[in-house]
From TrEMBL:
Keyword Repeat set for record: no
GO biological process: inositol catabolic process
Alphabetic keyword roster: Isomerase
Protein's recorded name: 5-deoxy-glucuronate isomerase
NCBIfam families, per the entry: myo_inos_iolB
Family matches, as Pfam families: KduI (PF04962)
GO molecular function: glucuronate isomerase activity
């Protein structure tokens, strides 16, 4: 089940619930909440989690700490703040909107924390028709977790992202073993995943709001935004390495494309979003 259509794993109170068991792997997970003012209480269990507003705002209560997340109107209007929840905790979320909870099975217990939107590194990656925006809100060098890594990618209509195709399924120099979840909003768009020798996988899925694609192994990319439709995806990654990393290996047939970006003009549509100024 590499492509999970919106609603296929819904089970109250979750609009989406992807556990490591459902995915058939060990670490990475994702839940989505749709709230209309009510409060949802849950246990994190063996997982560290984030609460990331996709639309709207919320209040997060955990271990005596209350965090007010300002959030955003939608993923296409701004960079959001977020909250970190440790393993073995009980949390309560109250709000209006849609909220993603990326997660990873973890061992080290870290404190409840607030991630300000103003501190999220925003990167423009690629060039030309492969230009896109990456919000590195929970990248290894941006926010401390035990195993969890999460970033957002916004692709302007007609562009390709997650390109050149790359993989992270073999431990070695320059590559780490990582399970990966793609959660989409906007669209329609298309997501490609294909295998390497001895490890087959073959996915070409039309994706839009609420859809998920699981990447247990293999090359993934491109993520294609159809003309007329911007595409957003949330990447959730986790793996067995002691040190958090996003190390990957390009498909050697297409790696040369990176060398062409240096001479290309910037895409004037990027960045598509930014963080609100402090105090505004």
């Amino acid at each position: 089940m590499s492509h999970i259509p919106a609603g296929a794993t819904a089970a109250a109170p979750w609009a989406l619930r992807v556990t490591p068991e459902l995915a058939g792997w060990t670490y990475a997970g994702l839940r989505v909440l749709n709230l209309s003012g009510e409060t949802v209480e849950f246990d994190t269990g063996e997982e560290e989690m984030l609460v990331l507003p996709l639309s709207g705002s919320c209040q997060v209560e955990c271990e005596g700490t209350t965090l007010a997340l300002r959030g955003r109107e939608s993923v296409f209007t701004g960079v959001s703040d977020f909250a970190y929840l440790p393993v073995g905790a009980t949390a309560r979320v109250t709000g209006h909107g849609r909220f993603a909870l990326p997660s990873a099975r973890a061992e080290r217990r870290l404190p409840v924390r607030y991630g300000p939107a103003g501190r999220v590194p925003v990167e423009i990656r690629g060039a030309g028709q492969a230009a896109r925006q990456v919000n590195n809100f929970c990248a290894p060098d941006a926010f401390e977790c035990d195993r969890l890594v999460a970033v957002e990618v916004l692709t302007p209509e007609g562009n390709w992202s997650s390109y050149p195709p790359h993989k992270h399924d073999t431990a070695g120099a320059g590559e780490a073993v990582l399970e990966e979840i793609y959660y989409f909003e906007g669209g329609p768009g298309y997501q490609r995943v294909y295998g390497s020798p001895g490890r087959p996988i073959d996915v070409l899925a039309e994706v839009s709001c609420g859809d998920v694609v699981l990447v247990p192994h293999g090359y993934h990319g491109p993520s294609m935004a159809a003309p007329g439709y911007d595409l957003y995806y949330l990447n959730v990654l986790a793996g067995p390495a002691a040190e958090r990393t996003m190390a990957f290996c390009d498909d050697p047939r297409h790696a040369w494309i990176r060398d062409t970006w240096a001479g290309q003009a910037a895409d004037p549509r990027l960045p598509m979003t930014s963080a609100p100024k402090e105090g505004s």
